[in-house]
Design goal:
Blueprint: H1 2-12, E1 24-26, H2 29-32, E2 46-48, H3 49-57, H4 62-77, H5 84-90
Helix pairs in contact: 3-4, 4-5
């Protein structure tokens, strides 16, 4: 379901530099500490949306799913007009 939502949001916010498969997401500490099945994400790493989708789907990485959720949640909150990484840490 997360993959479906991410792909729909990329389509919805076409033109936003933060909503593409190539958009980069920096892994925060909270995401790197997620329990359960994991893609073994490390705090400070920067991965593309596409790489995180692979990490979410192949090893069923909960951490990759949360990283995508946080990123795209920020995009939804600001209508694709603000860097979601910056807006989440400043709000």
């Amino acid at each position: 379901m997360t993959s479906f939502c991410v792909l729909n949001l990329i389509e919805k916010y076409a033109g936003s530099q933060w909503a593409t498969l190539q958009s980069k997401i920096k892994i925060c500490r909270q995401v790197s500490l997620i329990n359960g099945t994991t893609a073994n994400l490390i705090e400070g790493d920067t991965l593309s949306v596409l790489e995180l989708m692979y990490g979410m789907m192949l090893p069923s990485g909960n951490d990759a799913s949360v990283a995508l959720g946080v990123h795209f949640g920020g995009i939804i909150k600001h209508g694709g007009k603000k860097d979601p990484e910056v807006s989440i840490t400043q709000d």
